[in-house]
Task: structure prediction
Amino acid sequence: MDSRETVVGAGSGRTHSSPFGDSLRWIIGEEATADAYSLHERTAPPGAASVPHIHSRVSEAFYVLEGEFTFELDGRTVNAGPGDYVHAPASVSHAWRVTSSGDPARALVLFAPSVPLAFFEEIDAVMQEPADARPDLRRLAAINQKYGLT
Result:
């Protein structure tokens, strides 16, 4: 195998919690892709949703594996199911919501350029704080700012 080739086994990679009620499993990014992209698997229960947000320097793409998502892209609503691809370019307001019921929805999420693993680790650390406390929104915003994901 050429040293530039990479194989990542199913289920490998650490899973990180997010403030949106979902989790993101790190598949690859940073050094392995020369910062070109990072790839994640999102698993989200019915009703989980992000808030509308903008990444000033990073695009975010979604490939739905299971379940149904509704995306808001610059004020436009897009419904997506298994096999559908949705792309939010850098500087475009976007949000997602799981609209299917029953089992969690799953999607591959690609950030280009790569979002550092450290970003997901820092967000996860905030989310792991005591369950009776709400996540500190100022700390989450500061982490987003630190990595240019505002």
Notes: The chain has a mean pLDDT of 91. Helices lie at 117-127, 137-146. The chain has two helices and nine strands.
